[in-house]
Amino acid sequence: MNLLKRISCTVAAAMILFSVSPAAAAEKAKTPVTQYWVSVATQNMSIPGMPQEGMSGLQGMIIGKMAGVGPKKSLLLQLNSPGALPSGPEATHDIPPGLSMGKTLPLLIPERDKPVRGGEEPEQKAEKPKVRMLFYWGCSEAVRPGQPRVLDTEKMSMPQFGKAMSGRTGSGQTPPSQRSGWAYAEWPNRKDRQDVPKSSSLSGDHFIHGNYTPDIKFAVGERHDFMAPVEFTSVTGGLTDSIKFQWRKIPTAIGYFAMAIGHNEKTGETILWSSSDAQDPGYGLMSYLPPADVNRFIRDKVVMGPEVTSCSVPKGIFKDAGGAALQFIGYGDELNIAYPPKPIRRNRRTRKYPTNISGP
């Protein structure tokens, strides 16, 4: 029987954003303010329903190879501060003991890449790609009436095809970056690239300070710590059947979304499915969404509500593809933080779960 392949990768991600103004007068004068982002993620290759410690040696070795290093937490720190850099710029992020990464993480100005000059290449005429896609949607055991929607570039213009595939998207985000008139620093960097220990916790007091940035102090509680990985508690059905997957309820999740994609080698067709009750492919939904967007998409029956713990892929839609890749995401809440204290920015929390649907 063709089954859902139960080797899966879980990703839990969060982001803490800050706007910092050293004085109220600066706010009134519309002076640019310092921004600081803390991005965290938990990645893990796993077998749904089986804890990592319960795997056999062979399973653990295979999963370890697929994931690179197995279960892993990651951390990205990004700072933007207005103004010119002083000589000998220094900044650092003092961290709580629970992170188990020392007392502080240095924030470094990245080295600018030198432009590489190459010969001019002759302009090539772009050919229109040939794509035929069968699009299904909705959590259901059987294919719903009116499906699939066929998207074919030979019968549609590229703008028409792009519009059909775009679907809904969340509010745009602009992280700190290298730009004129602003200092930019980050971690990890050339000075410190240590791995984040598996037992690390963000909970506790944090302090960012340096000679080109105002001081930033904040505390992280348990609710906004590294998120626990997604757990599929049951996956049943084969590629010729309806495939049902269930997951353990995530206490801090405010909504869920899933999508799957496969390819029929014989016909060249791409098969796409999303969990949305409305017709939406979901490409713009597989990343962080602000709670206002999540709530709106739940009302639109695009995103599953936080009380939902199961979904079914319609019967047989991937039977001729021999397999498919399934992605799952749980959306988290926000934490508004500013220093000195003022609710300007937000903490972003998301959780993703990509896996595979395969043949025997």
The Cα radius of gyration reads: 23 Å
Sum up the overall morphology in one term: globular
Mind describing the biggest β-sheet? Answer: 11 strands, mixed
Helix run count: 4
> Beta-strand percentage?
25-35%
Q: What is the terminal-to-terminal distance?
A: 7 Å
3D structure, described in words:
- With 360 residues, the protein is mainly β.
- The protein has one domain.
- The protein is built from four helices and 18 strands.
- Strands 1, 2, 3, 6, 7, 8, 13, 14, 16, 17 and 18 form an eleven-stranded mixed beta sheet that branches.
- The N terminus and C terminus are likely disordered.
Give the topology, please:
Elements: E1 8-20, H1 24-28, E2 34-46, H2 57-67, E3 72-82, E4 91-94, E5 104-106, E6 132-137, E7 149-152, H3 158-166, E8 182-187, E9 204-210, E10 216-220, E11 232-236, E12 243-247, E13 255-263, E14 270-274, H4 291-299, E15 310-313, E16 323-331, E17 338-339, E18 347-358
